[in-house]
Specification:
Elements: E1 5-6, E2 16-18, H1 42-45, H2 51-58, E3 63-65, H3 68-74, E4 82-84, H4 86-92, E5 99-101, H5 113-134, H6 140-159, H7 174-184, H8 195-202
Antiparallel strand pairs: 1-4, 2-3, 4-5
């Protein structure tokens, strides 16, 4: 009986991400700024993403190196199996062979950690540096702001420009660490944000159609 699952070895985990932009017949249309309706530039993304991620987003290089630490975390669930859907083939009475790459084997049960682990890695670098130099463990949300501030400071280092950089440290991460412990112990209570609050917040979003 033929195997239903095909696995690669951990040694075969890719060392670089493939960037499809390098092989497109023409570049993808850029995302639009919801306020201006104009194409987003790197400077628009610095408010929420570290520069290392923005460079990847804007890059047209075919291969982008995967950091070794990210590859080590990927080994928790990757390589994910390639499975043959033999029962589906039988139900369809088809001579075709049907395979699917099963990304449900990740801890989150989906493909999302494939990108979220990398995003957390690049933002964590900034948080760790801040902790080591300033002696404060930042809240996870603050790591985005810290990363942006570091990127701006490094630009000033290259250009010699003197600039005043201010960011908000939204809080320390001590309470977050206890929440992580509670989660892994199964004691963290789920909280569903009220629907009326969501609808109220959505009313404040800009109407993109007005800018077209």
């Amino acid at each position: 009986m033929a195997d239903k699952k095909i696995y690669l070895s951990e040694k075969e985990i890719p060392e670089a991400w493939y960037n499809i932009q390098a092989d497109l017949p023409q570049p993808l249309a850029p995302p639009l700024n919801p306020k201006t309706g104009q194409p987003l530039g790197p400077e628009d993304l610095l408010a929420i993403f570290p520069e290392s991620l923005i460079k990847q987003e804007m890059s047209t290089e075919r291969w982008i190196e995967i950091p070794e630490q990210v590859r080590e975390i990927y080994k928790i669930w990757r390589p994910s199996p390639l499975k043959r859907a033999t029962r589906l083939e039988k139900a369809l009475k088809t001579p075709a062979r049907i395979y699917f790459k099963d990304e449900s084997v990740s801890p989150a049960g989906s493909h999302k950690p494939n990108t979220s682990v990398a995003q957390a890695y690049f933002n964590k670098e900034a948080g760790v540096l801040f902790t080591r130099t300033e002696g404060i463990i930042p809240a996870p949300e603050s790591s985005h702001a810290i990363r942006a501030a570091i990127d701006e400071a490094l630009k000033c280092k290259e250009t010699g420009e003197e600039k005043c950089i201010v960011f908000c440290l939204s809080g320390h991460g001590h309470f977050d660490m206890s929440s992580y412990d509670a989660y892994f112990e199964g004691n963290l209570t789920d909280y569903a944000y009220p629907e009326e609050k969501i609808r109220e917040a959505l009313k404040e979003l800009p109407d993109i159609k007005e800018n077209r």
